[in-house]
TrEMBL record:
Keyword set, alphabetical order: Membrane, Transmembrane, Transmembrane helix
Entry's transmembrane regions: 20-38, 50-69, 107-128, 134-151
Source lineage: Bacteria, Pseudomonadati, Pseudomonadota, Gammaproteobacteria, Alteromonadales
Organism: Thalassomonas viridans
Superkingdom of origin organism: Bacteria
Name this polypeptide is given: Uncharacterized protein
Length: 314
């Protein structure tokens, strides 16, 4: 059975875009991690070979999450075709009233294969909207820009196909000079296609705070960050926390340790220190504690439900 050409085009686009997105995502992941370290005011010290692997995994996790996020918004932008056509009509109507002529924006008609993945985009918009309602409008604008980018890529791909057809058909009235010009145009169009793909991948970065959210998600997935956990801190750092106004719980795991609850772990597992935020409402005030002086109590599902204590782990 012959695979439909439309599906073949989509598959080729996905494979090429995934390759570009993977490389771009890993680079952006590394830059985003550096930005995160700058934000918390700490850069890992004493990094070992194992820590380097952890850093690579953070970049890969960021790349995977970023690809899913970008691709889902891309699919959602194309699937909102009826909305964009409605906007076109609205703009044309307004232009007509003002006696102005505008060229309507062309959009790519959605393929059924996009509909399913666009649901993931809707889920992203919903989840982000729960915490930051103001960013939803920005995400819709992002989808609109991605829809325009998709239409431009399709137009460029069609022009490339037309040139390839002309060059392969051996038309007698096509001179060598014309063939050379066609080949130059083809190369230029391919560059433009890559630019459109890169632009589509970079658009989500313009969403305020989204790169930070993806980094946080990557760190949480790899357990390099944890919100509101119980920690057991050895002297003298336990004394430092007390001097800052934190009250330890009565029970502790030993005479040299003091236990504190509700502490945010901003970074662990990379370098020789663990970064904690003793006061979550003051995120810029962070403390780096040597790994040998802190034990982080593992947070389990049953603990979230029943608030029962569990064994600890380093």
């Amino acid at each position: 059975m012959k695979i439909p050409s439309r599906f073949d085009e989509i598959l080729e686009t996905v494979i090429k875009s995934f390759g570009i997105a993977s490389r771009l995502g890993i680079v952006l992941g590394g830059l985003a991690l550096l930005s995160y370290c700058y934000q918390i005011g700490y850069f890992p010290e004493g990094i070992s070979a194992g820590d380097t692997i952890a850093l690579i995994f953070v970049s890969i996790a960021f790349a995977v999450l970023y690809i899913i996020f970008s691709a889902s918004l891309y699919a959602l932008g194309i699937s909102l075709y009826p909305l964009w056509i409605l906007l076109n009509k609205l703009f044309l109507f307004i232009a007509k009233i003002r006696n102005k002529k505008i060229t309507p924006v062309e959009y790519l008609k959605p393929d059924p294969s996009f509909i399913g993945f666009s649901l993931v985009g809707i889920l992203f918009v919903f989840l982000v909207g729960l915490s930051e309602k103001s960013i939803v409008i920005t995400m819709v604008i992002c989808c609109w820009m991605l829809a325009i980018s998709a239409a431009n890529r399709k137009k460029i791909a069609t022009q490339i196909s037309d040139i390839e057809l002309t060059l392969s058909s051996n038309i007698l009235n096509v001179s060598e000079h014309q063939k050379t010009e066609l080949k130059k145009n083809k190369a230029l169009l391919k560059k433009m296609k890559i630019q459109q793909t890169t632009f589509a991948l970079l658009i989500p970065l313009f969403l305020g705070g989204m790169s930070e959210k993806i980094v946080n998600g990557s760190l949480n997935i790899l357990s390099l960050k944890a919100p509101s956990v119980t920690i057991h801190v050895k002297k003298p750092h336990s004394n430092l926390l007390e001097n800052l106004g934190l009250k330890p719980v009565e029970k502790s795991i030993g005479p040299d340790y003091k236990t504190f609850k509700g502490i945010d772990i901003l970074l662990r597992g990379i370098g020789k220190n663990t970064v904690v935020a003793p006061f979550p409402l003051t995120p810029k005030f962070n403390i780096a504690i040597p790994n040998e002086n802190i034990i982080i109590q593992k947070k389990r599902l049953s603990e979230n439900k029943n608030n029962k204590s569990h064994p600890t782990e380093k």
